[in-house]
Amino acid sequence: AKARHAKQRARTHTRRRKEKMSFTAAAASKTTFLAPSLSATTKRTTTRSTSRGGVGQSASKGRRCVQVRAGEDVVVSIDELTETTRKAIKTYGYDDKATECILDILMYAQLRGNNQGIIKVTTNGIARDPDATPVKITEPVPLSAAIDGGNNHGMIVLDKATEIAIDKCKKHGVGVVGTNHTFTSTGALGYYAKKIGDQGMVGVVLAQSPEFVAPAGSKQAILGTNPIGCSIPRKGGEPMTLDMATSAYAFFGLLEAKTSGKPLPPNVAQDKDGNMTTDANAALDGGAIMTFDCGYKSSNLSLCIELLAGPLVGAAYNDKKAAKNWGNLVFAIDPKILGNDGFLEQSAFVMDRVKNAEKKEGVSSINLPGERGDVLAAENKKKGTIGVEPNLWKGLQEYAAKYDPKAEVFPIEWA
To answer: What is the pLDDT, as a whole number, of residue 94?
Structure first.
C-alpha cells in the first residue's frame, strides 16, 4: 500500500510540474487582466451594441456569419462565437467537461447582454491554477455542505455547489452550500439561481470578490462587487430571476471599457483621489467602483453580502486577491416548508400585478427582474447572430487560434 501511495504521489507531482510549466508559458503571453493584443488598443467608439437593437442579420445554423459596419460591433453568428469561445477556453488547459461548463455559463451571459460573458476569456478571468488541489466537499449537517475549491475554477465549483443545494433541498426542504478557495469569477449568478428556480425552489446565490469597490464615503476599495442572484418560482411561467451586483458597475465592465476605449457611464467609478471618473484606466489604477446608489443603502447591502459570502463560508476577508480565496453562498428553499401550499399562485399574482401596474406617462412597459435579458437572448437566438465589440472579437479569435487539440489537458480532481 505504501508503494502504491508513493507512486500516486509521484504521478501527482509530475502532473503538477507539467501544469506549472504550461501555466508559466501561458502567463508569458498574457497580462494579469488584458491580453497584449487588447492592451494596445485604445480606439474610442460610442456606438451601442448591435445585440441591443442595432444592425443584425439572421444566419442559418452552422453557417459562419461575420459582418462589420464602420463604428459598430462585429455581427457574428452564435454558432461561430460559441465554437471560437470553446477553443479559446481550451487554450487554458481545461478538459472537455470543464470547458463545456464554463462555456455554458459565459454564453448564458453573452446572449443576455450581460458583461459576465466572453470578456472573461480574453482578460484571464478563467485562469487555471497549476497548483490547484482536489476539490473537497464536507457535510457539517445533512442539509448543508462546505466546499473547498482547492483554487480550481470558480464557475465549476459554484455549479457543483448549486447541484448539491438542489439535492439537499429535495431531501430536507432546504439546501445550504458555502464555497471557498476559488480565485476566478463565478460569472452571472442568475445562471445558478435559475437552475434552482427551475426546480420550483427559491434560489439565492451570493458571491464575494476582491477589493474593487469603495464603501460609502471612502476612496479606498474594500468591498467586492458582491453580486446577488435570486430566483423565485411562480405558477404558469418561468421563475423570476434577479441578477445584480451591489456595485454600480461590474469589474469586467471596466475591463470591457478599457478594451474598447469607451468611456464609463457617469457616477460608477472614482479615481485614486476619490474623484468621479469616466476613464476605466483611472478607475483600475488605484481607483474604485462605487456601490449602485453611491450611498449608504447599497454600501450596507454590499457589506452584508461581503460577510455572508466571505467569513461565513471560510473565504478571505483581507487582501482577498492575493489570498486567492473568494467565497460563495447558495440557498435552495422548498416553498412548502413554511406551510403555504399556495405560494406559486400567489407569487404569480404579485408578479402580474407589478407587470400590469398603472404606468407613468412615457413608460411603455414594466419589466420584472431578468425579463430584459430573457427577451434579448430570445431575439439573438431567433436571428442567429449577436453583436460583439470588435477588439473583443479580435482578441477571442487570437486566443482560439492558439488552440492545439493535441495539447495536454488537466482535468479537475475531486477528493
So the answer is: 97
Type of residue at 252: F
State the virtual CA torsion across 170, 172, 174, 177 in degrees, nearest 10.
-90
- pLDDT tens digits along 317-371: 999 989 999 999 999 999 999 999 999 999 999 999 999 999 999 999 999 999 9
Amino acid in position 90:
K
- 93, 101 in Cβ contact below 8 A? no
Phi, psi of 201 (to 5 degrees): -110, 160
- Among all chains, which residue has been given the C-alpha cell 487588447? 38
Measured between alpha carbons, how far is 339 from 401 in angstroms, rounded to an integer?
A: 56
The CB-side HSE value for 116 (13 A sphere, CA atoms) comes to 25
- Would you give the distance in Å from CA 314 to the centre of its chain? 21
pLDDT band at 11 (very low <50, low <70, confident <90, very high): low
Instruction: Write the DSSP symbol of residue 332.
Output: E
Distance of CA 76 to the CA centre of its chain: 22
Span 228-253, mean pLDDT? Answer: 95
Cα gap 411→198, rounded to integer Å: 29
Using CA atoms, how far apart are residues 352 and 344, in angstroms rounded to an integer? 12
What element of type H or E holds 237? strand 237-244
How many CA within 13 A on the CB side of residue 367?
10
Residue 181: CB atoms within 10 A of its CB come to: 25
Cell of 403: 488552440
> Residue 331: in which H helix or E strand, if any?
strand 326-333
342: Cβ–Cβ under 8 A, 6 or more apart, which residues? none
* Cα gap 240→366, rounded to integer Å: 14
Q: Where are the alpha helices (DSSP H) in 242-370?
A: 251-260, 280-284, 296-308, 320-323, 343-355
Distances (CA, A) of 357 to 229, 247, 343, 349, 360: 25, 28, 21, 12, 9
Residue 222 contacts residue 213 (beta carbons within 8 Å) = yes
What one-character DSSP code corresponds to residue 34?
S
Average pLDDT over residues 3-10: 52
At position 345, the amino acid (one-letter code) is E
The C-alpha R_g of the chain, in whole angstroms, comes to 22
pTM for the model: 0.84
C-alpha atoms less than 13 angstroms from C-alpha of 291 in its C-beta half-sphere: 27
